[in-house]
Amino acid sequence: MGPLGLVYASSVSRMRVIPGAWRRTAAGAGLIGADGVARPTIFAEMSALAVHTGALNLGQGFPDEDGPAEVLEAAREAIAHGVNQYPPGRGIPDLLAAIAEHQHRFYGVSLDPAREVLVTAGATEALAASLLALIDGPEDEVVVFEPFYDSYAAVVALAGARLVTVPLRWPDFQPDLDQLRAAVTDRTRVILVNDPHNPTGAVFTAEVRSEVVALANQHDAVIITDEVYEHLVFGGPHAPIATMPGAWERTISISSGGKTFSTTGWKIGWATGPADLVDAVLAVKQWLTYVSGAPFQPATATGLRLPDSYFTGIAQTLQSKRDVLGAGLVAAGFDVSVPSGSYFTVADAGPLGATDAADFCRALPQRAGVVAIPLTAFTTPENRREYATLVRFAACKRVDVLEEAAARLLALAG
Ligand code: PMP
Ligand code: GLN
Fold it and tell me: Is 264's C-beta closer than 6 angstroms to any atom of ligand 1?
């Protein structure tokens, strides 16, 4: 932007104070600057930096290859066959059925597709609608593990509630159970658990999961799960919290097709759970998007019905990519936390002299032609110091891209 543009931008921001909940929403996600202007998310900033500098984008978590051909073809077919108008509010019946079949096939959960399943605009909308539906004011608290996926803090702030965090610490990123117990009280409306976990790649132990259920029962809280990486686990099958004893009645389980079918731009997600909880989520969801993605709904149903070998195959492929990335990071001089699931690997840039991961990531395209995300983007300001030198790299890229990134990162080793 030229000088005129800058003057214009700064005079507008000086002259106009736009009231509304947007400010606390942006502030909740740590995106309000001292000037009161909302910044783009870290993903938008870093992907733009990758485009601008031509660096390899190991920042934002999206695959650089298409998913299964039959899923893509099913979307084309749907468009060609007129699936282009509003679908039913809860989702097209075939997708509702496919989600129920999927939950039964992988987790042994029997769902009534008409009452216990809701299709949403990605997991993002399911999360937002669930939190907005269940939080009811400034006394309410939502407990999350920290670092956390950025949308959680934004939506909790929009809802006007308090975010209470339980730290996950380098290098295994499992919570301390005493700290978890201390965080959950009778003010806790929701315990929100992302498993497998973004950004750390942690898969929580059975002990952690059962403590979450026990605490939710003890304090009458609802559990919301974010399981978008459910099929991207490396050490055995994913175990949803909803399947644990005492969990079902108080759990909304959320997932989406984006990661599983490499269709992150389609934004087909879902929430499953007891009918009354699903109805509560629907009561809010219908005023957010109402419905979305008509032709992508049957296509996602096709994906959910792929054979087991597809699902084990994507985990194996990602695991070998994780290993290529991890070896590259170690060779470059990082300390590396080996993830058990998700797209991501967290590396400590401290041994390379970094003291501030955000500065390190902003300089990385120039230094090594690679983009990554600082973990501080997923923390509250108070706890930023704890994660000051940690950086998240995405492994969901072509192997040749990961190999090239590894070769470039060797520049850091000096
Ligand atoms: N939760 C987590 C943990 C994520 O990493 C993402 C990012 N893709 C989402 C939710 C959002 O999922 P969707 O694209 O389906 O809205
Ligand atoms: N889930 C993706 C990630 O963590 C980003 C999605 C987004 O840009 N909001 O990288």
Answer: yes
